[in-house]
Design brief:
Function: Catalyzes the transfer of a dimethylallyl group onto the adenine at position 37 in tRNAs that read codons beginning with uridine, leading to the formation of N6-(dimethylallyl)adenosine (i(6)A).
GO molecular function: ATP binding; tRNA dimethylallyltransferase activity
Organism: Rhodothermus marinus (strain ATCC 43812 / DSM 4252 / R-10) (Rhodothermus obamensis)
Radius of gyration: 20 Å
Keywords: ATP-binding, Magnesium, Nucleotide-binding, Transferase, tRNA processing
CATH superfamily of the largest domain: P-loop containing nucleotide triphosphate hydrolases
Catalytic activity: adenosine(37) in tRNA + dimethylallyl diphosphate = N(6)-dimethylallyladenosine(37) in tRNA + diphosphate
Length: 307
């Protein structure tokens, strides 16, 4: 896609008029497959910007095809941050991202460049703009024990425990969102304090932002999603996932529960055939895009339609 000239011109002119050490800086957000990458590259070149990738999976070196990582030539055109920086067994959260991104923004400004945030990982975008609790790192063994308990005792037992140790968090959480329940218990067992304590003592963002949500008509977006999934499979997504598993990474890793990877793992384990795998990835990606759009509507962001 060629980025719409009028959008580029307006955003570039606006950012030049509002340059300061505290912002506001532009965020290009939007659902998966909407076309953020193409627009961001042209805008970054117009502004002499460096791109902060707000994508929770592109930071992992082994996840390339299934995360629609920018191609090598794009990474050469514009400097990107938080792409290909970690291995799959290295933990990274929205909190890690926010604190690291704030530091990178300062470094970008010190080089005389402009930070441009691009991505669709909603919790990462929230933490970057509004701040997040400074929760200490927790020994990974704590989460492993909780995941084992989830398998042996079931989600009801873990939620009941959370109701006892952190009733405020339990009241806010959906009991069926087991990974969020586990996260709250992980913080409690790993730090000795309930997660609500950290939420009450969160650090605000030192910067301000102007968030642009890119969108398309739903049938157009869904067709782009379907087509991109086919392109990922043609590019070797199955082989990428097979290589990850052959390298010794557990299919139970949270990061491998990502859409596009979880379904391929099911296929490789014999749960269904290749065509079913393809349709599942397409369906689950469309549902994910719908959830992203629902989340963006919660905030007073600006919406820009791409034709």
């Amino acid at each position: 896609m060629t980025a719409p000239k009028e959008i580029l011109t307006e955003l570039a002119a606006w950012q030049r008029r509002h340059l300061s050490e505290q912002g506001p800086f532009l965020i290009l957000a939007g659902p998966t497959a909407v076309g953020k990458t193409d627009l961001s590259l042209e805008l970054a070149e117009a502004l002499q910007a460096e791109i902060i990738s707000a994508d929770s999976r592109q930071i992992y070196r082994q996840m390339t095809i299934g995360t629609a990582k920018p191609p090598h030539e794009a990474l050469q055109r514009v400097r990107h941050h938080f792409i290909d920086e970690l291995d799959l067994d290295e933990p990274f959260s929205a909190g890690h991202f926010a604190f690291a991104a704030w530091e990178r923004i300062g470094e970008i400004l010190s080089r005389g460049h402009v930070p441009l945030v691009v991505g669709g990982s909603t919790l990462y975008l929230y933490a970057l703009q509004f701040g997040l609790a400074e929760i200490p790192d927790v020994d990974p063994a704590v989460r492993r024990r909780l995941n084992e308990r989830l398998r042996t005792e079931g989600p009801e037992a873990l939620y009941a425990e959370l109701q006892r140790v952190d009733p405020e968090a339990a009241a806010r959480l959906d009991p069926t969102k087991t990974q969020r329940v586990i996260r709250a218990l992980e913080v409690y067992h790993g730090t000795g304090r309930p997660i609500t304590y950290y939420h009450r003592h969160h650090r605000p963002s030192p910067y301000t932002f102007r968030t642009i949500v890119l969108y398309r008509d739903r049938p157009v977006l869904y067709e782009r999603i379907n087509r991109r999934v086919d392109q990922m499979l043609e590019a070797g997504l199955v082989e990428e996932v097979r290589g990850i598993l052959e390298a010794g990474y557990s299919p139970e890793l949270d990061v491998l529960r990502t859409i596009g990877y979880e379904e391929v793992i099911g296929y490789l384990q014999g749960a269904y055939d290749r065509e079913t795998m393809r349709r599942l990835i397409q369906r689950n990606t469309r549902r994910y895009a719908k959830r992203q759009l629902t989340w963006f509507r919660r905030f007073d962001f600006e919406w820009v339609k791409l034709d």
